[in-house]
Design a protein that fits this description.
By secondary structure, the chain is of the alpha+beta class. The chain has helices at residues 44-52, 94-104, 109-122, 138-150, 168-185, 196-202, 220-225, 230-235; strands spanning 4-11, 21-28, 33-37, 59-64, 67-68, 79-82, 156-160, 188-193, 205-210, 213-218, 242-249, 256-259, 262-265, 280-285, 291-293, 300-308, 313-319, 324-329, 340-344, 351-353.
Length: 366
């Protein structure tokens, strides 16, 4: 396998007012599954295409196993890419689609046959080898596209939103197949998606991108639990993290964030030295960290809508004084629009962000 290193990688298109990708730096370890996550237009696919050799690099350095490959053609980088579209040859059977890349490289026929047989068995395609793409379902076509990459045994696998054309049930099953594939091959993989579920369930680490830059890199749960900015906090999670304006009050040991007509206790959770001078902050807390309490004391909100989802209930509410929030409540909750509810959030589940920059205010060192 291989180590992939991006060192201040940038891409600037002619006449564009800003770079599509700006000084992205990260290292994908040998055998690691790295997910590039972000909204449309954030630069994640352009970054992947630079790694693949399908886009030229404006500045920075790209290395595979310490070999700089900026000027190396795509065909000589020993990588395989699975695209959003299946990109199968419609006139070829599944067997021929799987074998095509190996034939182009002059691999001996017996070895091609054995590799195709092994990959087809691994992906459940053995019974489909003599079908053409038009006779396959979307999930089967995507498995053929995966198999065409696997059969080459490359140093690095690249995935460009490979599940976006599948329906919900097929996405879930194919996601599991990709996870099993990674465990079996122990291969270096870079995977681009805008779907947070794919990122959280597949990635060893995720790289969240925003406006062509890296917003945060880390293991999925670390990024979810300790977002580096308001953008990351809101992008990960469904419903997303609640972000409301607040003002800090109290002393170092009895600090609280005032919002919703009450105070959210921050005792010992943040370093007072890092707080804004005017004590105005953005307060963040995830819907699942909210407990419903008596509305007579503490922060309060007015219920606006209730979504009954079976396993849980999502309550949309407006904080007293302003600010929209969501609460992930027990499935047996009975609440009506217009009803007041009290809110309680443990200090360790509260996040503070700088209103000017959106950056997270660091917690106190433990």
């Amino acid at each position: 396998m291989a180590v992939v290193t991006l060192d201040r990688l940038s891409k600037r298109y002619e006449r564009a007012h800003k770079p599509a990708v700006e000084e992205v730096s990260l290292t994908v370890a040998d055998g690691e599954f790295m997910v590039l996550l972000g909204p449309s237009g954030c630069g994640k696919t352009t970054t992947l295409r630079m790694v693949a050799g399908l886009e030229s690099i404006s500045s920075g350095k790209l290395a595979i196993d310490e070999r700089v490959v900026n000027a190396v053609p795509a065909k000589d980088r020993d990588i395989a890419m699975v695209f959003q579209s299946y990109a199968l040859y419609p006139h070829m059977r599944v067997r021929e689609n799987l074998a095509f890349g190996l034939r182009r490289r002059g691999v001996a026929r017996p070895e091609i046959d054995q590799r195709v047989k092994d990959v087809a068995a691994a992906l459940g395609l053995s019974e489909l080898l003599d079908r053409r793409p038009h006779a396959l379902s979307g999930g089967q076509r995507q498995r053929v596209a995966l198999g065409r990459a696997i059969v080459r045994d490359p140093k690095v696998f690249l995935f460009d939103e490979p599940l976006s054309n599948l329906d919900a049930s097929l996405r879930a099953s194919t996601r599991q197949e990709i996870a099993k594939l990674h465990r079996r091959l122990e291969a270096t993989m870079i995977y681009v998606t805008h779907d947070q579920i794919e990122a959280m369930t597949l990635g060893d680490r995720i790289c969240v991108m925003h406006d062509g830059k890296v917003a945060q890199i880390g293991p999925p749960l670390e990024v979810y639990r300790r977002p580096a900015s308001v953008f990351v906090a809101r992008f990960l999670g469904s419903p997303p993290m609640n972000i409301v304006p607040a003002r800090l009050d109290g002393t170092e040991d009895r600090l609280s964030a005032l919002a919703g007509g009450g105070g959210f206790g921050l005792d010992g959770a943040v370093d007072p030295a890092r707080l804004p001078a005017d004590r105005a902050v953005l307060l963040g807390f995830r819907p699942e960290d909210v407990s419903l309490a008596s509305p007579e004391s503490g922060p309060r909100a007015i219920v606006q809508a209730v979504e009954l989802l079976g396993a849980e209930t999502i309550v949309s509410a407006t904080l007293e004084g302003g600010g929209e929030i969501a609460v992930r409540a027990p499935r047996d909750l009975v609440a009506q629009p217009g009803e007041p509810i009290g809110l309680a959030v443990p200090p360790q589940a509260l996040h503070l962000f700088d209103p000017a920059t959106g950056a997270a205010i660091p917690r106190r060192a433990s």
